[in-house]
Specification:
The protein has a single domain, classed as monomeric porin ompg (Porin, Beta Barrel). It has 1 helix and 17 strands. It has one helix at 34-39; strands at 11-28, 30-32, 44-63, 66-83, 88-96, 100-109, 113-122, 131-132, 142-143, 156-166, 171-181, 190-191, 195-205, 210-221, 225-226, 246-258, 267-299. The strands form 3 sheets. The chain has an 11-stranded antiparallel beta barrel with strand order 1-3-4-6-7-10-11-13-14-16-17. The protein has a two-stranded antiparallel sheet with strand order 8-9. It is elongated, with a radius of gyration of 21 Å. The chain binds copper (II) ion.
């Protein structure tokens, strides 16, 4: 994401579909059973969460040194639960997430090695007031816990740097990115913690049209600050702001196809599958099982 600049006047459109599957609970690096969560005093535990994101993206280069990027996400979330009494239920949310605007600014380039800054802003376009009904609320809708909200509710600074390199046989790169909330709380009384991400990858062409890639990604996120007064932090771990911190190391493999016959304006398709090799969570917190991404992009 944001790993390349464009030539002056170029426009690129992209469309991505992503799924993130989480199942089971964890505290630190240990798995917890449902009984463990009930024993910790919560009458309800999440058991599984599926997040689907469709992302429309546009990149435009007003000059060779600056590329602008806008991304519009649409998010669908489903969380399955079980109560201590054995009742299973799910809650759902769906809608537009936080729109991000980014600038990629060339810092250094010698033809083989390349460095640019990523400076952007995340806008609070995603809802932080999602609600659904639960066994405790009957048919009444109640505020859903933090992970089921579609946005952060705050303006966040996006700050990063990207290094890429290429030889005829192989290409590689690294990116560091920070997400820094610029407000102390959103309208519902809370904000997400800072998030840091570091990723490195290598890609190797198989032939003119196909390439494969391998990537590692380390992410660390701080706890939620403040609290939504409509949530009871003792009801379910996802409603407890202090149980929202963690770090995770993912390993990802990808496959890319490029329509080389069409030249630089050819269609590109990319698939990537990733799974954690390490995660340490302030729990009980849902653990990630896998992420999968399919994407299309084209330069106009
Ligand atoms: Cu692009």
């Amino acid at each position: 994401m944001g790993d390349h600049l464009h030539k002056e006047g170029e426009l690129m459109l992209s469309f991505r579909a992503m799924r993130m599957q989480m199942a089971g609970m964890r505290d630190g690096t240990d798995n917890l059973s449902r009984a463990d969560v009930f024993a910790a005093g919560f009458p309800v535990t999440p058991t599984r969460m599926t997040t689907d994101m469709l992302m429309l993206g546009a990149m435009y280069a007003p000059s060779d040194d600056v590329t602008l990027m806008v991304m519009l996400p649409h998010i669908t979330k489903v969380m399955d639960h079980q109560t201590a009494g054995g009742v299973e239920f799910d809650t759902r949310s769906r809608g537009i997430g936080d729109v991000t605007v980014n600038s990629l600014i060339r810092a250094w380039d010698d033809g083989e090695h390349h460095l640019h800054w990523n400076l952007g802003l995340s806008l609070p376009t995603g809802s932080v007031k999602e609600q659904d009904d639960t066994p405790a609320s009957g048919t009444n809708n109640v505020r859903l816990p933090y992970p089921m909200q579609l946005g952060t509710g705050t303006y966040d600074a996006l700050v990063g740097a990207t290094y890429t390199g290429a030889s005829p046989e192989i290409s590689w790169g690294s990116q560091v990115s920070l997400r820094i909330p610029l407000e102390n709380k959103n309208n519902e009384g809370w904000r997400r913690g800072h998030r840091e991400e570091f990723t490195s990858w290598i890609a190797r062409p198989i032939n003119e049209e196909h390439s494969v890639s391998a990537r590692v990604r380390f992410a660390q996120w701080d706890r939620i600050h403040g609290a939504d007064p409509l949530l009871n932090p003792n009801m379910v771990p996802t409603a407890n702001p202090s149980l929202s911190e963690g770090e995770r190391l993912d390993f990802l493999v990808g496959w890319n196809w490029f329509d080389a016959d069409a030249g630089t304006e050819g269609n590109r398709l990319a698939f990537e599958f990733g799974a954690p090799v390490y995660q340490d969570l302030e729990g009980p917190q849902l653990e990630t099982d896998f992420t999968v991404t399919a994407g299309w992009q084209k330069v106009f």
